[in-house]
């Protein structure tokens, strides 16, 4: 693509008035301008920012993924066929397991060998239920291979030993004629598995041990020493900060940056901003919708702040920022176990996911991975199950629509748009991200209209105008619209044709509360 030319007269005029469009009357047709920045650097959108997370929590594993080989629900070696087929459509790049908080009370030997001989344990973090360990290391890697994804395992630092972690890595990855590798073979796996990522502890500042960063930094260096490479080098991830705790990042980068490949970051969007009463997943009003999106957009500043600290110690950006837990966290559905974190999933959550992906694209120079919490039946899930029934959520469809961005070049955009809000709390009406396939030159353009009531016309200036656009849109009649087992198709993508090509640029008419994906040629 050629460098963008100067903005045509009409675009310049729109830019001049863009900042005063907030006062338009209800249902007025607003306008925004998006322009390719010819000076902006292109960055590769790492596929792993579209990663997933499956924890032993509620019905994520048991009932959601694992039903056992004797189940009446169609399965392959105990893993649900319908869920696997649905997830394969998302081109999942990486899957994190077994936690979460569960990881720091998980002892891997309990999950190998004949299932009838595996000891049970109490899942003290999530509901106090009995965990029978039927889904363990072999079953996880079976799922990974079914999905064609990479493996990310979180090791037990909080209640586990250095020896335990060292031996687990050897069990999984060693090709040698050694006791641990031969034990793996005796349990049915001859060749070692490929372990792409290994997390040394999880939330060590909280459920993983309530540690100070100084203490964890030293502990990380010790445990990391014994994560051996028996085959392809393992990417080592240190436990990072809780949200805006910049001191944790400062200490970790100062004391252990040279020993790590990645540093994690966790941030959950709470609709109310309060852990005591997070707000409902459905049945909320427009004020809660606005507050939720405003809170999720804080991810942009959050990443920028941690990136600035990391730059002090790692200006070449060798260490990746791994946002390995993110998503919306609401109150659980009435009548469900509070420890199972089961919540419905609405159009609001799909819009929230799209906004976060745009933020990850923007910070593609530092963000190397992100893992939504969680894959099935927990928090912002892709899929909900109920016995043999399964439904795809609105968030599922964002991952399906956005998978084309994986591995493409992020193109810097300048956006001028009105604000949506009540004066005290306002957010941009339009969010957009463009990526270019380095082989074909095809551009994939995703656009979000956050306004729940008004359509917005968006004018695009890419310098070299595309000749064709093929599109899909995700929207619904209400911001809390959602899919149920009885009505599974309320929120799903449909064809989008509201694109026109004018002498001054490409014009897209965005419906209210919508996400659009365009393929431009």
Question: How would you characterize this protein structure?
Answer:
The protein has helices spanning 9-17, 81-88, 137-147, 162-173, 179-186, 213-225, 246-256, 286-296, 298-313, 347-362, 394-402; strands at residues 30-36, 43-44, 51-53, 75-76, 79-80, 94-97, 121-122, 130-131, 150-155, 197-200, 235-242, 262-269, 320-328, 367-373, 383-386, 389-392, 409-411, 413-416, 419-421, 426-428, 430-436, 443-449, 456-461, 469-474, 494-496, 499-502, 505-510, 514-520. With 521 residues, the protein is an alpha/beta fold. It has two domains: 9-43 and 410-520, Immunoglobulin-like (Sandwich), CATH 2.60.40; 51-406, TIM Barrel (Alpha-Beta Barrel). An eight-stranded parallel β-barrel has the order 3-6-9-10-11-12-13-14, surrounded by six helices. α7 (246-256) links the parallel β11 and β12. It is globular, with a radius of gyration of 23 Å. The N and C termini lie close together (11 Å). The model is unreliable at 1-28 (pLDDT under 50).
């Amino acid at each position: 693509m050629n460098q963008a030319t100067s903005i045509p007269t009409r675009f310049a005029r729109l830019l001049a008035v863009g900042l005063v469009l907030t006062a338009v009357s209800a249902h007025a047709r607003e306008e925004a301008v998006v322009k390719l920045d010819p000076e902006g650097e292109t960055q590769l959108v790492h596929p792993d920012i579209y990663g997933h997370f499956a924890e032993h929590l509620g019905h994520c594993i048991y009932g959601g993924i694992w039903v056992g080989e004797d189940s009446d629900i169609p399965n392959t070696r105990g893993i649900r066929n319908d869920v696997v087929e649905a997830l394969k459509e998302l081109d999942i790049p990486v899957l994190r397991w077994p936690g979460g908080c569960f990881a720091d009370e998980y002892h891997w030997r309990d999950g190998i060998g004949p299932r009838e001989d595996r000891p049970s344990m109490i899942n003290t973090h999530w509901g106090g239920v009995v965990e029978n360990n039927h889904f363990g290391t072999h079953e996880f890697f079976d799922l990974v291979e079914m999905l064609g994804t990479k493996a990310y395992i979180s090791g037990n630092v909080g209640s586990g030993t250095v020896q335990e972690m060292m031996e687990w890595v050897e069990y999984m990855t060693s090709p040698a004629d050694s006791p641990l590798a031969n034990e793996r073979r005796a349990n049915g796996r001859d060749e070692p598995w490929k372990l792409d990522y290994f997390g040394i502890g999880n939330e060590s500042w909280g459920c993983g041990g309530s540690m100070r960063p100084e203490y964890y930094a030293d502990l990380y260096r010790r445990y990391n020493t014994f994560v051996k490479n028996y085959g392809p080098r393992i990417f080592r991830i240190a436990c990072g900060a809780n949200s805006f705790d910049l001191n944790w990042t400062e200490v970790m980068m100062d004391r252990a940056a040279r020993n790590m490949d990645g540093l994690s970051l966790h941030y959950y969007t709470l609709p109310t901003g309060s852990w005591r009463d997070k707000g409902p997943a459905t049945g909320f009003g427009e004020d809660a919708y606005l507050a939720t999106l405003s809170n999720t957009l804080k991810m942009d500043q959050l990443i920028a702040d941690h990136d600035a600290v990391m730059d002090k110690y790692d200006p070449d950006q060798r260490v990746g920022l791994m946002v390995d837990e993110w998503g919306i966290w609401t109150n659980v559905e009435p009548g469900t176990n509070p420890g199972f974190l089961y919540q419905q999933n609405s159009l609001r959550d799909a819009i929230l996911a799209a906004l976060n992906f745009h933020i990850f694209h923007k910070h593609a120079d530092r963000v190397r991975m992100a893992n939504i919490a969680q894959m099935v039946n927990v928090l912002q899930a892709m899929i909900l199950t109920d016995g043999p029934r399964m439904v795809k959520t609105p968030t599922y469809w964002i991952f399906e629509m956005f998978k084309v961005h994986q591995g493409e070049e992020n193109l810097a955009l300048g956006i001028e748009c009105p604000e949506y809000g009540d004066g005290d709390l306002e957010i941009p009406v339009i969010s957009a991200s463009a990526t270019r396939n380095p082989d074909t030159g095809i551009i994939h353009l995703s656009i979000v209209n956050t306004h729940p009531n008004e359509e917005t016309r968006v004018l695009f200036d890419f310098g070299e105008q595309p000749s064709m656009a093929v599109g899909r849109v995700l929207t619904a009649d209400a911001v809390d619209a959602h899919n149920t087992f009885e009505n599974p198709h309320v929120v799903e993508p449909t064809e989008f044709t509201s694109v026109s090509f004018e002498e001054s640029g490409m014009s897209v008419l965005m419906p209210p509360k919508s996400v659009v994906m365009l393929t431009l040629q």
